[in-house]
Amino acid sequence: MKALTEYIARSLVDHPEDVAVDEIRHSGRVTLELHVAKDDMGRVIGKGGRVANAIRTLLRVAAERDGSQVTLDVVEP
Hints:
The chain is α+β, with helices and mostly antiparallel strands. The protein has a single domain (about 1-75), classed as GMP Synthetase, Chain A, domain 3 (2-Layer Sandwich). The chain is built from three helices and three strands; from the N terminus they run H-E-E-H-H-E. A three-stranded mixed beta sheet has the order 1-2-3.
């Protein structure tokens, strides 16, 4: 999940070197914290949160195949 999130985020932003994903596991759930440059926050979140929600949907589908649950949090720089 972490690699998928990094790939998607790096494809969207202007500063791919600033993309970082922290993975936190607890009781069968995975929480991914996405860190991007301040200038790229709008690209990752999208208008009305559409891009972030689309990324979350992709992660949920990938997690279902692995039999786990995943949550994505976009962290403010």
